[in-house]
Structure formats: structure tokens, C-alpha cells
Amino acid sequence: MARVDDYINARKIAVEYLAGNTPDEIAESSGYRVIGKNRLRVPFLNRVYMVNWPEFEFEDESAEKKDVPLQEQVLILHYLAAKNEGKSSGRWISFREIPGAAFYYSAFVKRAVDPLKKTFGKDAGLFVKAAGKLNGRVIDAGNAGFEFNIFPKVSLQLILWEGDDEFPPEANILFYDTIGDIFTPEDVAWLAGMLVYRLMALAR
After folding, report:
1. Cis omega (within 30 of 0) for bond into 152
2. Mean pLDDT in residue range 54-73
3. Is the Cβ–Cβ distance between 6 and 13 less than 8 Å?
4. Cα separation values, 126 from 4, 31, 109, 117, 197, Å
5. Where do the structural domains in the chain lie, given as residue ranges?
6. Mean of the pLDDT values across residues 21-38?
7. Whole-number mean pLDDT of the chain?
8. What does the radius of gyration of the chain's CA atoms come to, in whole angstroms?
9. CA-to-CA distance for 182 and 152, rounded, in angstroms?
10. Cα gap 154→43, rounded to integer Å
11. Topology (CATH) of 92-202
């Protein structure tokens, strides 16, 4: 389990790297757009953040003006720093298929798959309702399946099979085949968990 100090250090490293790139260079590689001379507009889940350069301070654009969690900042910075020039083949892959992901598989299941099943496994309708609030795109899979575009070059598919008296619920989470070129397996596990927990919050 990562500690706060780990995230602070990860943020520092990412900021130092990104400061060596211009806002236009970062925007071109990430798919975001520059606002003014030195700010990036970054939609993330159901929020929009403004990120300034070169300090990479985050500002929540919502009416609540909430603090941006450090973990979210690190994931966004890692995405901005990724030089993903490869194109997806269009194939969706499981977490296990991500290079180097085996060590983090149990954490991925604990953070994302199990909470998804526990919260929505007996009520696919609740999953549908929450996914709609997060602009999920319906896909033809399971009892309910949605695709979520988290970053311009990163999408996740969440698929749910309802449980009943005879069979327990099942869930699967799939990723673009280029996900390993953008994030480490640990980041992917955290990202999937953030998506699931945001859906859980919207289902309340």
C-alpha cells in the first residue's frame, strides 16, 4: 500500500519531468488543450481540473472548489508525462495481460473488481443509473456493460453479471491494449479503483 510520502515523491518527480516540456508539447501528446498560455483543461471522471504550468498546481473548476486528491493528481501527471505514440489495435485486454501486472493483481481485485461486485452485483439497474451519471457508453456485454473514457487515450470497460440464489455476481474490467505504455500496473489498479468508487458514490 502506497504511503502519502510515496505520492508526494511521485508528484515531485512527475512535475520535474513535465516542467521540461512546453504546455503545447504536453497538450499535443496528451490530447488535452491549452487554455491561455500555460493552463491545461483536464476533465477527470465527473470533474474538470485546470492545471497550470510549470508548477502543475490543480484547481477544481466545479462550484464546490474541492481539493484535488493527491492520488488523482499523480495519476493525471503520469498520464500527461506519458509519451504514448503507439496506436491501439482495437483489442481490449484484461489486467493480467498488462506487462508486469501479475504482482498487482490481488490489489487490483481488492480495489476495483470486488467493490464493483459487492455494490452492484445484485442490482444491475443501480449500475446503469450510476454509469449514466458518469457518461458511460453502453456496450453489449454481461447484464450491464459500459465504456468510460477516462483520459483522451485511456478508456476502461466495466462489465457486470448479476448474481442470484444459485450463482454469485461476476465482474470484469478491460483496458485498451496500450494501457501499459501509459501507466504502470500499480497506476492501472488505482485508476480502476477510482472509477469504481466514483460510481459507488454516484449510486448513493
Report:
1. no
2. 89
3. no
4. 33, 32, 21, 12, 14
5. 4-81, 92-202
6. 93
7. 93
8. 17
9. 12
10. 13
11. TATA-Binding Protein (3.30.310)
